[in-house]
Structure formats: C-alpha cells, structure tokens
Amino acid sequence: FTDIPGTWQHFTVPIHHLNLGSVHEGFGFDGSSIRGFQEINESDMVLIPDLKTCTPDPFSDSTVSIIGNVKDPVTGEFYSKDPRFIAQKAEAYLKTTGIADTAFYGPELEFFIFDKVRFDQKENFGYYYIDSAEGSWNSGSEENNLGNKIRNKEGYFPVPPTDSLQNIRNQIVETLMRVGIDVECHHHEVATAGQCEIDMRFSPLSRMADQVMMYKYVIKNTAIMHGKTATFMPKPLFNDNGSGMHVHQSLWKDSKNLFYDKKGDALISDMARYYIGGLLEHAPALCGIIAPTTNSYKRLVPGFEAPVNLVYSERNRSAAVRIPMYSKNEKTKRIEFRTPDPSCNVYLAFSAMLMAGLDGIKRKIDPGKPMNVNLYGLDKEQLKKVKSVPSSLKEAMDALESDHKFLLEGNVFTKELIETWIDYKKTKEIDPVRLRPHPWEYYLYYDI
C-alpha cells in the first residue's frame, strides 16, 4: 500500500496466514507510523489483501506480492485517506455520472539511472553529487573513459554504445511483463547521464496506478542489481531536461471511445474538448497534486520541453495538453496531459485529473482554439495572454487550497485528506527547503 506522499510500503507474512479469514478481516499494522495516516492514539489499522493483484515478487525469493486496501478496524469502513481507495472511488463516481464507464490512463514516466549518488546537509554544509559514465561532464575523465558521452539535450534515441542502458532496460521490460504489465516500448530520453523512458500500454485508472507502483519497484531494484541507482526526481540535473510523466487519457462507454469524433478538429469530440477545459481550468490547483514537490518547479520552466503553458494543441509539446496525431484510428484517440511528473502519488494524481476533466464536461468548459505554434517562440506581449503553471510548490498549494471543490464531488477526495496533504507539504517539504541555505547562494552573496 502507499503512504500519502506516494511511497510503497510493505510487510511479509508466511503463506499459511493467508486464508479466508485474513482476506476478510485483514492484517493489522501501525497507522501512526505511516506518513499522513493516523495519530498515535488511533493507530490501529488493517490491510485487506486484493487477491486480483497477486503476482510473484521478482526480487524476493518464494514471495508473492499482493496490493491491499486500508480499513479502519473500529468503524469497519475503508480508510478515507488511503490513496488506492480514493482512486477506486473516482472510478465509481465516473460511473454514477452516466458520462462514461471507464477511464483509461497511459502514463509515460521518465527517470534517470545514475552510477552513484551522494547527498547531505547539516548546519554547516550542504551538497549533492551524482555521476554517470554517460554524463557529458565526463568527456575528459581519465577513469574508464571510452568516449560515447551524451551531450546535453541530445540523448533521444541514440543506439548503443552511446545508449549504455539498453540491456538494463531490456531486463526491466522482461521483468515487468513477467509480473503482468504490458510494455509498448522503451528508449533513452533527451537528457544526458542515463535518462530513460519505458511506456506501458494503457489500462483503467486504478489498475494503472497499481502498475505504476510495481513499475517503480522493478526499475529501482533492477538498477540496484547492476550496481546503479534509479530516481524519479523531476529535476535531478541542472541545465538539462527533467523527468515528466505525460499522462494519456480517454473516457469510454459501452466499449466506445467518447473522445473520438471523425468530424471534429484533430478527430476529438466536444466531450474531449470539455475534458481539456477542465484540466486547464483547474491546472494550478492540480499542480499541487500532480507536480507535488519543490523539485517539480525546477522542471516546470521554459526551454527544457517543459509544458508550462496552460493551452492545448495538436502535436505541440510546449503546451500543457497535446492531442497526439500519430494515428487516425478511433481506438487510439486520446488527450495527453504533459504537466504531471513521476514524483506524484499516482492514485491521487490520476483521480484528481479525472475529477477536473469531469468538471469540465459537466460545466462544458471551452478550452478555446488550439495553439499550434511554438509557444517558446512567442514575444513577451503574446505570452502575457497565455496562462502558465505555478512557479513554486507554495503557489500550487495556495491554488489547491482555494480551488478543490471539484475534488470533493461524490466524496472522492475528502476535506480531511486535502487538509492533511496541504499541511504535510507545507511543514515537511516547503518550509524545510525554504529555511536551508542553497549552495548557489554562496556564489551569489558570500562576498557581499
């Protein structure tokens, strides 16, 4: 199960303890020790195993992995702050609206595989150090240097030996398929120093969120097996592209794609346009959930393929929402929201995006005409007319605090969860980062 920030948690029990009784009653654990869950005076919680998620654990001998739902043993109710339960409520709410019966999600998670990482900060020092044999900064290294370094922003699609991670990604894909995750492709990404992408085939919302958690687990553990380390930080490197999580989305009813219209512009329906309208209308608040770290806003800056502009377009990767134009097939028509990043809690992020899109459909929010120009090429006067994402996590949290009514529809999100989320982000992330000196400040100000 996941904690509130989105990290997978686990415990292990002998198989003979998994029986009809334990499946019904669950396994007890201390909810006060899980980030964002319970106070110490109400700590007892239970985890109900979902046997549909049962799969061999690829990194633990003789072990089966099962994802569960958290329940309050006193009330007997599923836990309102369990991220997986929220995703399930979002899917149930979709059906009650009558708009659609299935929301398909297909995220493209980018990540880095580094050779080493060190970081620390105390009262009298602070630093991070990462390294990769692929890194452009190692072109003059004397240690094991055979060339083939990747220049900044030139890491997209090179063949080996320049792409040094082909075989590691092959192994990751084989493992993902072995645990039941359908993979469409994998490749090196734009940045130097081991940026990668592995794309999963789309699935219903909750199922895809489960798959993302296993996806991260497989990538991190496979990297460790090769003496490397994987990170889903949005912006671990200065001066090169960060890692996003572009999320492809579509709504279906009775096996029919509701986002397709053969007569519509870019072959999308009015429903798809209204869904886009909802995403763009609520994007500042959504950023508090879909780009939920202080590091996220090191990525969301112009010039690094970052989707900071709150408009939509066909094919244009500088817009927050893109209409992929690879195919005219009805079944492939979808919208792609490019602002999210893989530091998010995917159960909450997918649910929030669906709720924003549904609000757009219900209110018929018109996103206007697509902007099919290079938005980075607009002059200052033109850019003033284009809304953009928040520039910091604090701005995103302020937006979420003032605009979250759409998330409360159908009791999908609760006020308690929203308040817990905002308080956690402010006290555990925003303030601690704000209060610490930054190394670059010494460069700027030490000699004042």
Please characterize this protein's 3D structure.
It is built from 13 helices and 17 strands. It has helices at residues 20-25, 83-97, 166-178, 205-225, 270-281, 283-290, 296-299, 346-363, 380-383, 393-402, 405-408, 415-435, 439-445; strands at 27-30, 44-49, 55-56, 64-65, 68-71, 102-114, 116-121, 126-131, 183-188, 195-200, 203-204, 229-231, 245-253, 256-257, 309-314, 319-323, 335-337.
Q: What is Rg?
A: 22 Å
Task: Give the terminus-to-terminus CA distance.
Answer: 50 Å
Helix and strand string, N-terminal first? HEEEEEHEEEHEEEHEEEHHHEEEHHHHHH
For the sheet with most strands, the description reads:
10 strands, mixed
Q: Based on DSSP secondary structure assignment, what is the total number of beta strands?
A: 17
- The proportion of strand residues reads 15-25%
Shape, per Cα inertia axes: globular
Query: Treating each run of at least 4 consecutive H or I residues as one helix, how many helices?
Result: 13
Uncertain runs are none
- Estimate the helix proportion, in percent: 25-40%
Overall SS class: alpha+beta
| Average pLDDT over all residues | 94
Topology, pairings included?
Layout: H1 20-25, E1 27-30, E2 44-49, E3 55-56, E4 64-65, E5 68-71, H2 83-97, E6 102-114, E7 116-121, E8 126-131, H3 166-178, E9 183-188, E10 195-200, E11 203-204, H4 205-225, E12 229-231, E13 245-253, E14 256-257, H5 270-281, H6 283-290, H7 296-299, E15 309-314, E16 319-323, E17 335-337, H8 346-363, H9 380-383, H10 393-402, H11 405-408, H12 415-435, H13 439-445
Parallel strand pairs: 15-16
Antiparallel strand pairs: 1-2, 2-5, 3-4, 6-10, 6-11, 6-12, 6-13, 7-8, 9-10, 13-14, 13-17, 16-17
Helix pairs in contact: 2-4, 2-8, 3-4, 4-8, 5-8, 6-8, 6-10, 10-12
